[in-house]
C-alpha cells in the first residue's frame, strides 16, 4: 500500500518541478524581450551621455550630438531599429546618468564612466565591454612648471564630486603623503570655470577628458600641460541594468561587431554594398549566414547595419578623438591586439 501511494506523489512532484521550471523559463524570456520590445515600440534608444565633452558627447549648435560615446548609441539604434539616427540623448553628470540607468529611465549609459565593483554590484548594473582604456591624470598651467605629483603639495586640485576621480585622488595622495587643497565641484563646466578663475591650480579627471577640456575650453590650449603620469587605470565602457539580459547581449555584441570589423579590415565604405566573401567571419558580419541574429532577437543584417551606418571601431575612434581630430589622441592601449594594444573582439559565431 505504501509503494502504490508513493508513485503518484513522485509523479506529482516531478510535474510540479517541471511546471515551475517552465514558468521560470517563460519569465526569463519575457524579461529578456522586455527592454527590446519597449525600444521598438517607442522607436528610439534612450542613451545617457555626458553634459558635454568634446570628442565624446557634445551637442552642436545645429542640435546634433556628436562624439565617440554618441556613435556607440547610434550603433545600437542601427542594430535594433535599422536607423542609426533613432536615438534620444539624455545628458547628465555621472551620478545623474547612473541614477537614470538604475531606475530604468534610459536604456544604456554611454559616457566616460569607469567600470567598478561598486557600480556593478552596488547599483545593479552590468558592463557590456570596455570601449576605452584610460587613466586618471592632471592638467595644470604651464607657467607653474609642475612635472611631478609631489610638486602639487599645498596646491588646489579641482575634481568632480561623485566620480572615481575623487576617490583616486584622495587614496593616491594619502599613500604618497602629499597634502593638497581639495576643490570639489559638480558638473564639468563648473569644475572648468573654477580652474580658469584660479580657484584651483590643477584639474584632474581621465586623460581623454583632459585632452577634450584643453582643446574645447582653454583660451590658449598650449598654455596648459597634461601630465604623462597616471594615478589609476580607468576602464571605460557602456553600462546597462542588470536583469535586462537580452538587451545586455545586444549592447555587448554591437560593440564587438565594431571591433571585429576593424580586425577584418571592413569599414563603412567597403561594407556598404555587402561584398561577397569566402571568409566565414566576414560573412557573419555581413549577415550572409542564416540565423546569426536569432540569438539576439534580431535579423541577420544587424551587424552589417552597425558598420555601414556608423563605422568600425577604428573609424569611430579616429574621427572623434584620434590623431585626425582636434583631441589628437593616439590609440595606445586602445589599439587592436594584433598591433600591440588590448582591443580584441569576442568571436561572433
UniProtKB/TrEMBL annotation:
Keywords in alphabetical order: Signal, Transport
Superkingdom assignment: Bacteria
GO biological process: amino acid transport
Record's signal peptide: 1-33
Keyword Membrane listed: no
UniProt KW Transport keyword: yes
SMART domains to which the protein is assigned, alphabetical: PBPb (SM00062)
Domain (Solute-binding protein family 3/N-terminal) ranges: 44-275
UniProt xrefs under InterPro entries: Bact_solute-bind_prot3, Solute-binding_3/MltF_N
CDD domains noted in UniProt: PBP2_BztA
Annotated family: Belongs to the bacterial solute-binding protein 3 family.
UniProt-recorded name of the protein: Amino acid ABC transporter substrate-binding protein
Amino acid at each position: 500500500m505504501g509503494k502504490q501511494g508513493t508513485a503518484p506523489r513522485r509523479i506529482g512532484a516531478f510535474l510540479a518541478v517541471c511546471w515551475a521550471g517552465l514558468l521560470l523559463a517563460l519569465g526569463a524570456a519575457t524579461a529578456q524581450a522586455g527592454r527590446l520590445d519597449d525600444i521598438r515600440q517607442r522607436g528610439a534608444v534612450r542613451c545617457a551621455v555626458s553634459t558635454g565633452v568634446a570628442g565624446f558627447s557634445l551637442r552642436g549648435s545645429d542640435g546634433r550630438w556628436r562624439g565617440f560615446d554618441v556613435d556607440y548609441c547610434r550603433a545600437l539604434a542601427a542594430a535594433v531599429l535599422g536607423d542609426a539616427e533613432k536615438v534620444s540623448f539624455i545628458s547628465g553628470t555621472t551620478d545623474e546618468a547612473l541614477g537614470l540607468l538604475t531606475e530604468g529611465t534610459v536604456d544604456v549609459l554611454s559616457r566616460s564612466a569607469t567600470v567598478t565593483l561598486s557600480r556593478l554590484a552596488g547599483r545593479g548594473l552590468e558592463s557590456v565591454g570596455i570601449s576605452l582604456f584610460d587613466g586618471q591624470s592632471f592638467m595644470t598651467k604651464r607657467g607653474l612648471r609642475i612635472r611631478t605629483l609631489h610638486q602639487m603639495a599645498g596646491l588646489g586640485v579641482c575634481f568632480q564630486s561623485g566620480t572615481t576621480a575623487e576617490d583616486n585622488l584622495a587614496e593616491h595622495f594619502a599613500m604618497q603623503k602629499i597634502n593638497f587643497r581639495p576643490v570639489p565641484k559638480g558638473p564639468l563646466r563648473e569644475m572648468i570655470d573654477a580652474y580658469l578663475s584660479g580657484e584651483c591650480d590643477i584639474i584632474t579627471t581621465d586623460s581623454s577628458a583632459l585632452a577634450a577640456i584643453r582643446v574645447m575650453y582653454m583660451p590658449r590650449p598650449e598654455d596648459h600641460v597634461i601630465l604623462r603620469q597616471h594615478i589609476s587605470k580607468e576602464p571605460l565602457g557602456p553600462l546597462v541594468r542588470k536583469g535586462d539580459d537580452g538587451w545586455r547581449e545586444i549592447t555587448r555584441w554591437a560593440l564587438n561587431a565594431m571591433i571585429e570589423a576593424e580586425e577584418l579590415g571592413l569599414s563603412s565604405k567597403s561594407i556598404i554594398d555587402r561584398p561577397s566573401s569566402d571568409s566565414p567571419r566576414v560573412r557573419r558580419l555581413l549577415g550572409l549566414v542564416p540565423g546569426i541574429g536569432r540569438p539576439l532577437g534580431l535579423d541577420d543584417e544587424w551587424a552589417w547595419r552597425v558598420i555601414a551606418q556608423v563605422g568600425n571601431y577604428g573609424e569611430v575612434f579616429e574621427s572623434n578623438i584620434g590623431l585626425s581630430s582636434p583631441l589628437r589622441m593616439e590609440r595606445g592601449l586602445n589599439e587592436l591586439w594584433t598591433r600591440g594594444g588590448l582591443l580584441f573582439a569576442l568571436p561572433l559565431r
